[in-house]
Amino acid sequence: MTARRFDGKVAIVTGASRGIGLGVAQRLVDDGAKVVITARKTEALEAAVAELGPDNAVYVAGPADDTDHQDETVAKAIETFGGLDFLVNNTGINPTYGPMIEMDLAAGRKIFDVNVLGAVSWAQKAWAASLKENGGAIVNIASVAGQKPAPMIGMYGASKAAVIHVTQELSLELAPAVRVNAVAPAVVKTRFAGALYEGREEEVASAYPLKRLGVPEDIAGAVTFLLSQDAAWMTGQCLTIDGGLTLTGGV
Ligand SMILES: NC(=O)c1ccc[n+]([C@@H]2O[C@H](COP(=O)([O-])OP(=O)(O)OC[C@H]3O[C@@H](n4cnc5c(N)ncnc54)[C@H](OP(=O)(O)O)[C@@H]3O)[C@@H](O)[C@H]2O)c1
């Protein structure tokens, strides 16, 4: 069998029972890696592992911002697959919609707990358990909503701006052993973004120069590039993956 670029590599992909996370996990597995996937609901995780192949993937169920869950997941990667090389901080939530001036502060705190502090904490755990000693790479999933104001989803946008900043901070702190990069997608067809396009996909897609919305595979290609040796001299960067949308002034 021909060698694959991630043979012998082990990755944690958070929020990977469906959507972008599952797309990233699938691409990692296709390219030879073993993956540990996480999410809250067990049934969807079981189905995802069946899809990825039980020899290639295991899951740990839990909330992304729970530090015990993070410890358990990192330990599972090392116990099951003998190490940890990559972390993909993919879990992100947006439980509020509306003007920031009226936002429920508890919802805002939760967004920051999961999207920002969660990502930092996962990086701390992966670093301490393996990456510090053995090297590796981290990719954080940001959003074009973090690159300029995002009306009605403002706190989500602020959290993604923080993810981009955290990526830069960690890239300096963890170099040269570990590279830390991010991606900023526009609308990708997943359950999370359903309200933004369902029932009017053609109309929404028409604003994109490439005339279609994203699919998880579009993001998986960029994330795995950033994890790979092809990106060996890249750190602290955020790749925009948006079908050309932001060039037109749209988000
Ligand atoms: N789709 C887009 O248009 C788009 C655009 C830009 C950025 N993004 C970012 O891409 C990432 C993935 O989004 P997606 O569109 O793929 O979403 P999705 O299809 O809804 O999948 C979300 C995944 O995360 C898990 N999850 C959600 N909340 C969680 C929590 N609190 N703790 C642990 N797991 C949790 C879900 O499983 P459970 O529900 O079972 O926990 C599921 O596996 C997010 O960071 C999002 O902000 C998405």
TrEMBL record:
PROSITE patterns reported in the protein's UniProt record: ADH_SHORT
Record-linked PANTHER family: DEHYDROGENASE/REDUCTASE (SDR FAMILY) MEMBER 4 (PTHR43943), DEHYDROGENASE_REDUCTASE 4 (PTHR43943:SF2)
Q: Which family does it belong to?
A: Belongs to the short-chain dehydrogenases/reductases (SDR) family.
This protein's source sits in the domain of life called Bacteria
To which species is this protein native?
A: Aeromicrobium flavum
This entry's Gene Ontology molecular function terms read: oxidoreductase activity
Q: Name one Pfam family in it.
A: adh_short_C2
The name this protein carries in UniProt is 3-oxoacyl-ACP reductase
Q: Which InterPro entries match?
A: NAD(P)-bd_dom_sf (IPR036291), Sc_DH/Rdtase_CS (IPR020904), SDR_fam (IPR002347)
The answer to keyword Aminoacyl-tRNA synthetase applying to this record is: no
The primary gene name is fabG_2
Keywords of this protein's UniProt record, alphabetized?
Oxidoreductase
